[in-house]
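Q: Here's a chain of 226 amino acids. Please give me its 3D structure as tokens.
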Amino acid sequence: MECPFCGALNGAQFLRVDNNKRRYYDCLACKREFYTDDDNWSYHLTEKTKKREAEIDEERARVEAKYDEVEEMFRMSSRPSWSRQLPDFEILEKILDKKYAAMQSPNEKSWLDIAAEITSGDRRRDYGAPLVNFLRIAILWSAYMEEYISPINVAYMMVLMKVAREMNTSKEDNPIDILGYVACIQTMDQDLKQHGYEQGNTIFSEYTSAAQLQTLLNDLFKKGMK
């Protein structure tokens, strides 16, 4: 039968009938379990499904709060003129909407948790701290483009690369990596403050060249940054 919640044709399969003559179904498309009352054929979500959707909504709120924070940082950061024309994360919101609709189990790790594990685990060991890695990338890109590109710009451009890939083929690692790059912005800010640069990421708005970034990187190495 057609799912009354997502509209998938032949998506709902019959499960059982309880003692109250309620007929239970499970939708293969949206993973919702629901039942119908024989008296009026109205459809109701089961408590298990309601709980799962509440947890998904809570996770969505966490992600949206993170993007609100990033959008504010995005507006305040120094960016190339072309990037000011970008739609403020509208594409990312569509990606998140699509991915959350496909979530199957509330017991799975959230993308925020997975992104945090990746950026603080294997990738940090392989590529170094985000601050060091993004400084190196910014230095190289600035030299190649002959235009100042800050480590914050690097993070946003890596996000846009993942958005472009997602627009071609939808894969779970794309939104996870997007969140990882966003998390790296906060990590860079924290590392700068821990090494004596109280202004954090705003220091990059004071710079205008790759040479200044290289001087900062050298100073961070002297202070024990790895």
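Q: Can you summarize the key feature?
A: The first strand starts at residue 12 and ends at 17.
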